[in-house]
Amino acid sequence: MIVNNLSLCYHNKLILAPMVRVGTLPMRLLALDYGADIVYCEELIDLKMLQCKRVVNEALSTVDFVAPDDRVVFRTCEREQSKVVFQMGGMGAALLSDPDKIEKILSTLVKGTRRPVTCKIRILPSLEDTLSLVKRIERTGIAAIAVHGRKREERPQHPVSCEAIKAIAETLSIPVIANGGSHDHIQGYLDIEDFRRATAASSVMVARAAMWNPSIFLREGPRPLEEVMQKYIRYAVQYDNHYTNTKYCLCQMLREQLESPQGRLLHAAQSSQEICEAFGLGAFYEETTRDLDARRAKLLARSPEEAEEPAEDTSGIIKMAIKFDRRAYSPQITPKMCLLEWCRREKLAQPVYETVQRPLDRLFSSVVTVAERKYQSTLWDKSKKLAEQAAAIVCLRSQGLPEGRLGEESPSLHKRKREALDQDPGDPTTQEPAVPGELCKKPFVALAGGQESPLEGW
């Protein structure tokens, strides 16, 4: 059996279970504060992570994995280092019907990383099939297996099968983590140990009971809900958690109190500030956001050397301080369209745009490559589309070419429009006119890595 070089002990541990929309950074930190030993993040789709860019967020002291649409898919910090488990894969128990795929995925992960790999399953309709599956899983070399003691189709109101978990624990040599006891067994800290004994498991993973009140991990007993929610909100603001996620988690904690005056204020809240005000934390929000803004401003004011940024070779890049102002251009003719048309007329390869995002303020800068020359605006913009238009303008102005400004003649584009008007629309040989609106209908550009993608924002 293959064993990872690095291991995380899964014996006698209190564990926050992976929960969709719940296991984000504020909840994980709160669970650790209240006594959890290990925290799982919410279940994330592996394809989303492959599309993300790893960003060191100095303002928050976090490491972020940011999707192409600027959404933070996963955020972590030093506080949870060596305690957080990254949960990924198909949704729910999707892989249970494909044991070959389970084995292939786990074997690949175990061989490809020095980090401990764990697996979480539900039980199958028969105990015999369940034991056969977990033995197969154990042979892949994983460090531990978490077992939710319900079948795939069963819901929380169905009783959890402690007997099935116990049979698995007695069969395997690796640690077994018992899960699924929130409804029937776990209402307080002492119940966690009772559930562990009933299942003969090495550790216990708590889901909904921890979602309702993360202080359930405290040996001395849970803290008042108001105190827990305020502490959660503080983490959410400090780590710039999106208000919709913060609101969702607080609603899960309030439960039957959602119709209370405070619950109604939470339900009506449309920002982190309004959530804070609903819980008497308005001053905290103002102070924290002010400090965060000052920190970001200070980081932005540093020179590249002070910021310890990589010394990128920018020799040969033609730069101008240019912003793309939509109001100065025709909606039918944009700088990117003009540049593409010029490249086609000159029989050059179409422009290639490489765009990066600055983590501190999430602004964008783009470099366009045309005829093996690179062009870039020195001004950062608020969107990828605007940054690309600015880069196109730099190229066009460097070449003395029209860029589509209002009142500016663009001979080739306007000539096509005039020729299209002269054609007989009833003539079957007439081709679709290449007017600007049609010219940019489905253009493609080669991205980094040789991929092709439809251009947006023309």
UniProtKB/TrEMBL annotation:
Keywords: RNA-binding. InterPro entries: Aldolase_TIM (IPR013785), dsRBD_dom (IPR014720), DUS-like_FMN-bd (IPR035587), DUS2_DSRM (IPR044463), tRNA-DUS-like (IPR052582). Residues 403-439 are annotated as: Disordered. It holds the Pfam family Dus. One of its GO terms (cellular component) is cytoplasm. Residues 334-401 form the DRBM domain. This is Dihydrouridine synthase 2. It comes from Capra hircus. The gene is DUS2.
